[in-house]
């Protein structure tokens, strides 16, 4: 009885004291119900064979030890041994050690590939055998993942990875900022150096290892040569030392011009002897410090980065320079395919950025060294909400390839919008490119299987930061988890992966599981609906933050993310017969499908074809009506996430409940900003009205500019479509308090009162709302501190935001007053007020 009570107290204590700030991600090891009987049936010893100090085998033992204690309240001992005594023990070892020590008893070890493992555990006894030390660690995490999900049943599992390269990339700059990072500064760099305290870096290693990531590139592909100073090389060695026990190699991004800018050679010509020697020397010095360094990542001749083109050398000559320096050390060169001309002119109908990769790389097939891997973004342009597969995957047969995905949501809502990415990734991975009329799914191309390549795999840009949630959002972590799981087994089911993550992250409650599953699975389609449909791309501001809506920014510049929208038609004609011929870069069966508008799937229609807004889709709707409907439907889905999450009140710890709720409420408001901006833009451009009468008609809104203004003045917002009726109000000066008043005309009743305003970077204005002098709500413009998306200093689609006060009682004729106090450069901007009766979204 006493023991039982103690177990109970332990269980309760742990469940209440765990700080749920997200730091442990899915490795919380939260207690699951395990009574004495259950505890007795768990191993009391963790035995490692011949584990050298710092080996992942030792980490495995430590993790199992901690996990058993935290998850099940079971205390186990850890021992290193040279005998095969497995009584009441879990044995953790590499295949080699296992065969050597336990040989006579067990010759039944299954065949494993590099990093694979065999886990065979029944109750208190079993073994975790890795093909290498890293594999043993993966096996340990697999065991713990089962326990943490309350699964204590016997397991006998043999698994090997889909591909040898399962890397993550961080776009961390030496000054500690992170390009396209939305969760605070770098965990690796500050002030031009590697940080002294690598605690967070280590915690990140643990998360990555648990999903079987085997290497990390720690710095931005837009690389800074100062990473190669002796002092910084020492710093890199410190990171490597911390990552090694987790089976993770580190690698770095290089700046192509370093021999000149850092080395002072006056050249960086890849064929110049002094340059070759310089790189080989740098590489030797790095390997002196980090003998197991993974290799390099190079972005060259892209977006203004230096590259071999300066010296009229080919990309292959550029890549091979590094590859050869790495060869004596066994390192890999990841060379990015993201090479294109960003000064392309839209005047020519046949110009097309989507053609660039095949144009640049196809002719070089066979010219790359064997340790070069071409790292290819999933689509031909740039991480858009919907893209076809990059045709380059079907055009290199004698070259290793890896796919590049983005966990950081650069074009997909900066982690301020919930977007569960595996369903998107799967449209790419499962796509059959039909090379030579044979089955050629992308996943088999990148693994190396399809074209019999020795190397291949995966890279994901993750960009975690110092925020305790890692990515800025608790729910966004499902994407990092799923990335690892898919890189190991791309056929794994998106929902099954998600649900493992939910159980590990939030516990086993069925309601929590169902709600997060529903929301996550609805999230990408919703985001596509309210941002950019039919393959037109994410219609975000590509010239500024890549966050909120600005469809006009796609065209008229050299970046090549064109929509070619005019007042009658829209879309890129990528056909061979009449357009950019991009469709012709795919193998014949696929090329034919995309060439013909009838066989092009609707979700890529505008990617491949230029059509009138009145063109009818398979659904029978016109393109323009589809736009309108999809934007309404997407925003409606996002409104639904809020009550769905709120149904979990009390089932999720307070800290995470509130943090997630804040984001979902924000997303619901911002999805309306998106919906209205895109619809207004195309309505304005095409002059074609919404047949359902919604676009441009907002019966429940009161525009701020129509209210009685004191200290406020109307302001024409640019881009116009990001403000309701194109106009907002701002205070007349940066120190004048503004008031906007009006008589309420809606029928008496209870409403949710929404206020759309703009929250700029560079000030924290304060607003208060009164009904007949009764304060019904007040807030501060501090979202730049709370949300983490790239902020804006303008009134635009990034700064537009909605706050809602629920259940406000109103009588017809009441006086509504909003008072805005400006701060810094933020003139307390207001767009409109909306009274929402139950069930109305306006
Ligand atoms: O789309 C662009 C991003 C850049 C990024 C680049 C790349 C690191 O906006 O921020 O640079 O892609 O992938 O190299």
UniProtKB/TrEMBL annotation:
Keywords: Carbohydrate metabolism, Glycosidase, Hydrolase, Polysaccharide degradation, Secreted, Signal, Xylan degradation. Its EC number is 3.2.1.139. Residues 153-470 form the Glycosyl hydrolase family 67 catalytic domain. InterPro entries: A-glucoronidase_C_sf, GH, Glyco_hydro_67_aGlcAse, Glyco_hydro_67_aGlcAse_N, Glyco_hydro_67_C, Glyco_hydro_67_cat, Hex-like_dom2. Residues 472-694 form the Glycosyl hydrolase family 67 C-terminal domain. It is found in: Secreted. One of its GO terms (molecular function) is alpha-glucuronidase activity. One of its GO terms (cellular component) is extracellular region. The active site is at 303 (proton donor), 382 (proton acceptor), 410 (proton acceptor). It catalyses: an alpha-D-glucuronoside + H2O = D-glucuronate + an alcohol. Residues 25-143 form the Alpha glucuronidase N-terminal domain. Residues 1-19 form the signal peptide. Its main location: secreted. GO terms for biological process: xylan catabolic process. Belongs to the glycosyl hydrolase 67 family. Alpha-glucuronidase involved in the hydrolysis of xylan, a major structural heterogeneous polysaccharide found in plant biomass representing the second most abundant polysaccharide in the biosphere, after cellulose. Releases 4-O-methylglucuronic acid from xylan. PANTHER family: ALPHA-GLUCURONIDASE A. This is Alpha-glucuronidase. It comes from Aspergillus nanangensis.
């Amino acid at each position: 009885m006493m023991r039982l009570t103690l177990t109970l107290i332990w269980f309760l204590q742990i469940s209440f004291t765990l700080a749920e700030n997200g730091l442990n991600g899915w490795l919380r090891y939260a207690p699951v119900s395990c009574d004495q009987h259950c505890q007795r049936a768990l191993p009391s010893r963790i035995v490692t064979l011949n584990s050298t100090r710092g080996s992942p085998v030792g980490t495995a033992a430590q993790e199992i030890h901690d996990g058993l204690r935290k998850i099940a309240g079971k205390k186990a001992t850890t021992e290193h041994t040279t005998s095969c005594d497995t009584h009441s023990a879990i044995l953790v070892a590499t295949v080699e050690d296992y065969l050597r020590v336990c040989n006579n008893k067990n010759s039944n070890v299954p065949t494993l590939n590099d990093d694979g493992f065999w886990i065979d555990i029944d109750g208190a006894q079993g073994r975790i055998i890795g093909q290498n030390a890293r594999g043993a660690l993966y096996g340990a995490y697999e065991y713990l993942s089962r326990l943490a999900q309350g699964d204590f049943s016997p397991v006998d599992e043999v698994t090997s990875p889909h591909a040898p390269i399962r890397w993550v990339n961080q776009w961390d700059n030496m000054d500690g900022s992170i390009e396209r990072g939305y969760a605070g500064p770098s965990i690796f760099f500050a002030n031009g150096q590697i940080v002294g305290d690598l605690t967070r870096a280590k915690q990140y290693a643990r998360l990555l290892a648990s999903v079987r990531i085997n290497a990390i590139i720690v710095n931005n592909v837009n690389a800074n040569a100062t990473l190669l100073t002796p002092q910084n090389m020492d710093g890199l060695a410190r990171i490597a030392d911390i990552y090694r026990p987790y089976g993770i190699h580190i690698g770095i991004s290089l700046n192509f011009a370093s021999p000149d800018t850092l080395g002072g050679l006056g050249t960086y010509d890849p064929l110049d002897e002094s340059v070759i020697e310089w790189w080989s020397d740098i590489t030797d010095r790095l390997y002196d410090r980090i003998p197991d360094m993974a290799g390099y990542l190079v972005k060259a001749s892209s977006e203004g980065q230096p590259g071999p083109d300066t010296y009229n050398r080919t990309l292959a000559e550029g890549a091979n320079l590094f590859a050869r320096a790495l060869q004596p050390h066994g390192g890999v060169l990841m060379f990015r395919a993201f090479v294109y001309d960003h000064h392309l002119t839209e005047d020519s109908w046949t110009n097309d950025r989507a053609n660039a990769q095949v144009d640049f790389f196809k002719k070089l097939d066979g010219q790359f060294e064997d340790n070069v891997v071409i790292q290819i973004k999933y689509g031909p342009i740039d991480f858009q909400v919907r893209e076809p597969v990059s045709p380059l995957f079907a055009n290199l047969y004698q070259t290793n390839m890896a796919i590049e995905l983005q966990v950081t949501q650069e074009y997909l809502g900066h982690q301020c919008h919930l977007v569960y990415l595996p369903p998107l990734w799967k449209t790419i991975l499962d796509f059959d490119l039909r090379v030579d009329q044979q089955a050629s799914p992308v996943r088999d191309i990148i693994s190396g299987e399809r074209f019999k390549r020795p190397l291949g795999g995966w890279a994901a840009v993750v960009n975690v930061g110092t925020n305790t949630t890692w990515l800025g959002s608790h729910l966004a972590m499902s994407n990092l988890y799923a990335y690892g799981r898919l890189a190991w087994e791309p056929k794994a089911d998106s929902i099954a992966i998600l649900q493992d993550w939910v159980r590990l992250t939030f516990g086993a409650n069925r309601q929590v599981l169902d709600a997060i599953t529903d929301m996550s699975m609805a999230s990408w389609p919703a985001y596509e609906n309210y941002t950019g449909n039919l393959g037109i791309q994410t219609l975000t501001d590509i010239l500024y933050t890549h966050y909120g809506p600005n469809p006009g920014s796609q065209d008229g510049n050299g970046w090549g993310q064109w929509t070619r929208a005019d007042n009658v038609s829209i879309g890129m004609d990528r056909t061979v017969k009449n357009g950019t011929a991009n469709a012709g870069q795919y193998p014949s069966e696929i090329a034919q499908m995309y060439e013909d508008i009838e066989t092009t799937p609707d979700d890529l229609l505008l990617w491949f074809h230029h059509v009138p807004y009145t063109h009818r889709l398979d659904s029978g709707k016109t393109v323009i009506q589809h736009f309108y409907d999809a934007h309404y439907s997407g925003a409606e889905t996002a409104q639904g996430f809020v009550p769905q999450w709120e149904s979990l009140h009390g089932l999720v710890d307070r800290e995470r409940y509130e943090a997630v709720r804040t984001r979902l409420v924000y997303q619901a408001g911002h999805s309306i900003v998106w919906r209205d901006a895109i619809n207004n833009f195309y309505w304005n451009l095409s002059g074609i009205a919404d047949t359902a009468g919604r676009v441009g008609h907002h019966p429940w809104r009161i525009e701020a500019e129509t209210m009685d203004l004191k200290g406020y003045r109307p302001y024409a917002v640019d881009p116009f479509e990001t403000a309701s009726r194109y106009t907002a109000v701002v205070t007349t000066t940066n120190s004048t308090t503004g008031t906007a008043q009006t008589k309420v005309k809606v029928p008496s009743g209870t409403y949710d009162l929404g206020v759309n305003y703009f929250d700029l970077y560079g000030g924290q204005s304060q607003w208060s709302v009164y009904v007949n002098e009764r304060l019904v709500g007040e807030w501060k413009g501090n979202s730049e501190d709370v949300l983490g998306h790239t902020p804006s200093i303008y009134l635009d689609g990034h700064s537009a935001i909605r706050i809602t006060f629920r259940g406000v009682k109103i009588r017809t004729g009441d006086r509504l007053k909003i008072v805005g106090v400006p701060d810094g450069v933020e003139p307390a901007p207001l767009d409109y007020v909306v009274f929402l009766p139950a069930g109305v979204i306006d």
